[in-house]
Structure formats: structure tokens, C-alpha cells
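note to self — DONT lose this again. spent like an hour looking for the file last time. sequence + predicted structure for the chain T wanted, 268 res
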Amino acid sequence: MILVGVDVASEKHDVSIIRDTGEVIRDNFTIPNKESGYKKLLDEIKKAEKLYPKDKVRIGLESTGVYSMSLTEFLATHYEDSVILINPILTSMFELSCHVHYAKTDKTDARGICKFLSKNEDIRPYAIVSYHTRQLRALYRERTKLNKRLNQDINRLKGQLHIAFPELLDKKQVRIGLFELEFLSKYPTADSIRNMKPEKLVAAFSKIKYMRIDIAKARRLIEEAKTRRINMKINAKRGREYQEHGCTSKSLSLRLAIQDFISTTLPL
């Protein structure tokens, strides 16, 4: 059997071609990570097949994401059911099991992949993936990243909101909606509505669809804002200057959290 080991990198690939008997056919040559390099590798494999026409070819590459994708697709079109993607951790552990003192280099990795192929014949070969499948996978990964970032921004926004303006959220409310974002953009702290009349607060949202508030909710928010101000005065022991500085800091942190949340939701 002809074994081809390819150690994948970003700009070049190191290759070794040996037989399962241990005979070296072509050892330690380098190809660039572009089409001319792929054709050079294909020529070398063809030469090995001419020397040993009865031997089957097995090609092993370490799975390194984008760096190995183009070469894998190229080889799979010429050697279907003979190209194998290998987890780099498996090849590293295999080399460590064979040698106590293992010096990891690109050249030794290429030879190590050949040895790994000779000892593991039951590995499932690579199957060519269609363009649409790859695009769907990429979209799914991007969606997962956005959801993770969105959850982080929501938690950050809730944390800042509980510091600066906890009265805005109901006790049973578990999410932040469009109304809360619009409200916080205009009135980021309780102090910003403390001296406002309920009618003015209702009028501020009267022209925005699905964001209207009634007079009762407006009165409740203003009343709770006044109560919060009184409690801050009672609890503060470092003077009015510290309170004003703290309020400004909370408002700024909340505004930044809102901006991050909105920038995350825009692509969705």
C-alpha cells in the first residue's frame, strides 16, 4: 500500500510518501498551498503508482479547517474513498505512544501521518461535500456565534439596568424588548424622569407604534424614580459629589451596553 502523509500549514505543506512495508518512496518534500503545489503532489503520487501498480493509495491529511479544505477537495476528486482527514490530536498522541522523546516538526509530522495510516485501516474516508452544504454549515456557525454574543450583551445590559434603573423592568420580566431599549435611549437613569410630569412621559411615546405607555405606568415609574433618589440620599455617606459622579458613570455604562446590544441585533 502507498501511504501519503501531508502535514498542512497556511502557506506550504510537507509531504512524505512511503509504503506500508516501511520503504521510503519520496520523503520530506514541500509544496505551496496553491493549485501548482496540488498538481506537483498529484504527479508524485502518480509516479509512485507507476513504481507499484498493484498497491492501493491512501492519503492522510491533518484536519486544520480552512488550510486543508482546498487540498482535500482537490485530492478527493482524483482519489475518491482514499483521502482521510485526521484529527491532529490523534496523530500527536500516536507519535507519543511510539516515541518517548518526540521532536515535533513538519517533516516528522508528515512521516507520522503515514505511520498512523498504516496502523489504522478502519478510518472512514473523506466524503466530498457540496457547495451548498458548506455554505449552510458556515451560516450555522455564524448564527451560533451571534446568538452567543447576543446573550452576552443581554446579560450585560440587564446588569447595568439593575444598577442604573431597576424600576423599568417588572419583577416577572425576563427579557428586554423594543420598548425598554427606546426608553433607555431617551432616559438612561431614574434621575432623568424624576421631575417629569406623567403626561409628558406618556406623550414622549405616544407617536411610536407598539411602544405607548398609559398614565398609570408613567406615574409608577416617576414615583419609583423619586423613591430611588430619596434612598440614594439616605444611603450615601460620601457627599453629593460622589452621588453625581456615580450617576454619570452608571448612565455611560448603560448607554455603552445598549449600543453593543443594538449593534449585535442589527445583522439579525
